[in-house]
Design goal:
two-stranded parallel sheet, Tyrosinase_Cu-bd, mainly alpha, binds copper (II) ion, 9 helices, 345 residues, globular, di-copper center containing domain from catechol oxidase, oxidoreductase activity
């Protein structure tokens, strides 16, 4: 089950009608909820194209964040089990372009096995549950939770990959890790046509990818702006700090020095297209994990030079539900069982 926010102040489940529907002053309206997704005011954009077009509508979202805290979180029940750190040395996440044919095949086979088990759909459902408040389009808290939440999410996926890979390749000397896809590189050709999971909305194979602009995915200059020139970002938020400016640009809300939109994470989703452009169900496409591993790697690189920068998160906002870890548990990748093969942009 997942929840959606609507600007009318109606809170409803998109999957079933057993979820609570809450009307709140002063947003109660007599007209029915608009599900046309044609108005700019609608706050659950279905695609990353819409997310990009929406900008960062902070004014309306702060109220909804409050609604979420008071009314939704208590209804959601317990967190998923804590995943302990795996034993042994950390695994190395590699550039997908450098991955051996054996590892490419092992990755694809492990994903197929997770799909067959039903585990893959369980993982996708974590991302479809927008009540976890893990994207900037959900407001300021979502902006600050974006990096920590997705880091924890990738760890969950990586450990599931390793679990099934140990069965599929019992003699393997190296554990699988999530590869990363540098945005300036072309789409990983070894994943062409590889869409083994069904669209959770329809139960049928997802639409094929587009892999074309617009929007542009970030080039080398854009990535340099995101990581090294983050201080030029003007978020308009109160109490903005280095962390605010960096995550704002990396997620995809930023500006280039000439004032044009700075392509970041959001733009990569829209550029790949197909189900990657679906805000909720994008992890259905396995390239999601490679795209987010690059987000995570760029954060890791930035962290080395900006170790004291912190998101403005306190209390339960700091806990990356449905898991039990707080932001503080997610600062160091080695603690989570992985390192990157390169810390160059
Ligand atoms: Cu994403």
């Amino acid at each position: 089950m997942y929840y959606s926010y609507c600007v009318q102040g109606v809170l409803a489940s998109s999957e079933s009608h057993i979820a609570p529907v809450v009307f709140l002053e002063p947003f109660v309206r007599s007209k029915k909820m608009d599900h046309s997704h044609k108005t700019g005011a609608h706050l659950h954009p279905k695609t990353f194209d819409e997310v990009i077009a929406l900008g960062f509508p902070l004014d309306k979202l702060e109220l909804l964040k409050d609604i979420h805290k008071k009314l939704v979180k208590p209804l959601l029940g317990g967190a998923a089990a804590f995943a302990p750190k795996p034993p042994g040395a950390p695994v190395t996440r590699q550039n997908q372009a450098d991955l051996s044919p054996e590892k490419r095949e092992a990755f694809r086979n492990a994903v197929v096995r997770l799909v067959e088990e039903g585990k893959y759909l369980e993982l996708v459902q974590f991302h479809r549950d927008m009540s976890h408040d893990m994207h900037g389009m959900m407001g300021e808290t979502g902006l600050y939770r974006f990096l920590g939440w997705h880091r924890r999410y990738l760890v969950e996926f990586e450990r599931e990959l390793q679990r099934v890979d140990a069965v599929l390749r019992p003699g393997a000397t190296e554990k699988l890790a999530v590869p990363y896809w540098r945005w300036e590189d072309p789409f990983p050709a070894w994943l062409n046509g590889f869409l083994p999971a069904n669209d959770p909305d329809t139960g049928t194979p997802p639409p094929s990818r587009k892999n074309a602009s617009p929007p542009q995915k970030a080039n080398a200059t854009d990535v340099d702006i995101i990581v090294n020139q983050f201080s030029i970002q003007n978020t308009g938020l109160n109490n903005e700090n280095d962390y605010t400016k960096f995550t704002y640009g990396l997620e995809g809300w930023g500006r280039r020095p000439d004032g044009t939109s700075l392509p970041g994470h959001n733009h990569g989703h829209a550029w790949v297209g197909g189900i990657m452009n679906n805000t909720m169900s994008s992890p259905t496409d396995p390239v999601f994990w490679l795209h987010h591993a690059e987000v995570d790697r760029l954060w890791h690189i930035w962290q080395q030079a900006n170790s004291s920068a912190e998101p403005n998160l306190s209390g339960s906002d700091r806990i990356m539900d449905p898991w039990g870890e707080s932001y503080d548990d997610l600062v160091d990748t080695e603690d989570l069982g992985y390192v990157y093969d390169s810390t160059s942009l």
